[in-house]
Amino acid sequence: MSSGQSTAPIAAGQSGTNVGGNAQQTAGSEPEEVWDEAKLEQAMKTLKEMHIQCRNLRSTIPRLLTPLATKQQSPEQLFSSFQQAATTSNKEVRDFTRLMKDEEGVKLFEHAKKSRAENPHGIKPWRVTEHPDWLDRDT
């Protein structure tokens, strides 16, 4: 989190902010999972990976059709190239689907939805121009 951002309550029924990682629960409420700094950083990495994979899926069909659009030396070569492209495309779609349906991903989106419902003001839209390294996995 960068400085200058306001902190929002992390758990339902919590008043104030999560100071020092000590979430305060009101009496009678169920304890909910506390999203500390490390968990939020991991969630950001997961979201970034989801975004990168989703963005890369945009070129799946053109990459799948490339062997059909180029002149091949033989029908066997055409079949082999197309089969390889289809296998690669299928794997990319399965990996993205698995990531989106993973328990961590589902919890992440539930938390984001809940957080947005509790504090809908001041959420800025994400701009690629503000994050030129968005496609780099190691940052």
Task: Name the features.
single chain, 4 helices, elongated, mainly alpha
Largest sheet: none
Q: Number of helical segments?
A: 4
- Compute the CA-based radius of gyration: 21 Å
Taken from the alpha-carbon principal axes, the silhouette is elongated
List the helices and strands and how they pair.
Layout: H1 37-57, H2 60-69, H3 75-101, H4 103-118
Helix pairs in contact: 1-3, 2-3
Your description of this structure?
Residues 1-35, 111-139 are annotated as: Disordered. Residues 1-28 have a biased composition (Polar residues). This protein is mostly helical and 139 residues long. The chain has a domain at 35-75 and 126-139. It contains four helices and no strands. α1 (37-57) runs antiparallel to α3 (75-101). The longest helix is centred in the middle third of the chain and has 27 residues, at 75-101. The protein is elongated, with a radius of gyration of 21 Å. Mean pLDDT is 79; it is low at 1-30.
